[in-house]
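Q: I have 329 residues here and want to know how they pack in 3D. Can you give me a structure?
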Amino acid sequence: MDIRLPPISKKSLFGRRRQGPRIPTRFLPDPPFALIRVKRFYGTHMSDRPASDIQRLIEIMAKLRDPQQGCPWDLQQDFATIAPYTIEEAYEVADAIDRGDLPALKDELGDLLLQVVFHARLAEEQGVFAFGDVVAAISDKMVRRHPHVFAGVAVEDAEAQTRAWEQHKRDEREAAGETDASALAGIARGLPEWQRAVKLQKRAARVGFDWPSVTPVIAKLHEEIEEVRAEVDAVAAEPHDGAAHARLQDEIGDLLFVCANIARHAEVDVGTALRHANIKFERRFRAMEALAAGDGVPLAELPLDAQERYWQRAKARERQDHGAPQQPL
C-alpha cells in the first residue's frame, strides 16, 4: 500500500550526524522517497550512513590482509581461491530469499558484500583498482544503461528496455575492442551450466531461432530420451568402450539442454525448479528414515521394494498432514 507522507526536507533526513561537520543541505540531492518510507515503516535504527559503514568494512579487510598483523588465512588467499566462496555466498543469498528469511538475508548479503570488498582489496594491493573504482564503475554503468531514467530518453515498456539494455551491452563490448559480433557474445562461461543453457537459448530466440511453443520441445524431449536409451544400451554391451561413454555423455547433455528449454518456454526458472525438487526429495527421504526408525528397522538394511513402501508412506503422510506440499513442488 502506498503510504502518503508529508514533505520532508533535506535537513530533516540528512542533517543529523553522529560526528563530523554538518553538510549544507543545498549541496545534497533530493531525499530518496523510497528510503524515507522504509525508514518510517521499520524505524530509524536503519543506518543512514552507508559511506561510513562501508569504510569500516574496507578498513577491516585491510587489517585482515596486513602482512605483519593480519589473519594468516586471509593472507594466503588470492582471486582464484576466493572465487568459490563468492559463488557459494551468492547461492546462500538466493537460499535466504527462497526461504523468505529476511534476517538471514541481511547476514548473507553482508557475506556477499565481504566477497566484493575482498576482491577489491586484492586488486588494490596489486595497484589495479580499489573498492571506490568498483562502485564508480557500476554507478556509471547503471546511469549509462538507463538513459530513460537519467537522460530523458523515452522507452515503451519493459520489453523495449530489455532490448535497449542488450544493445548497450553490445556497444560497450565494441567500445572495449571486442570483435565477437555473434548474438551469443558475452555469455559468461563461468555460469552454472543450466543457467548458461537458458541464456544461450534466449539469445538464439532473439534472432528467431526458437521453437514456436513448448509442445514441439516436449516432442524433442521424447526423441532425446530414446537416444539416451540407445547409448545406455551401447555402454551396457561394451562397458569399457570409451567412445560409447562419450556418446552417452553427449546425449545426456542434449537431454538436459532440452529440459532447460522446456522450462524456459514454460516460464519456469530452472534453478528454482531444481532447488524445490531437491527440497522435496530431502524432506521425503528424511521422513522415510524416521518411519523406518520408528519401526525399529535401519533403512540401509532394507531391500529396494521395502524402501519404496516407506517412500510411498512418506508421500501419503505429507499429503495427509498438509493436503498438498507447502511449496509448489
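Q: Anything worth noting?
A: Residues 195 and 315 are 30 Å apart (CA to CA). Confidence is low (pLDDT under 50) at residues 1-44, 325-329.
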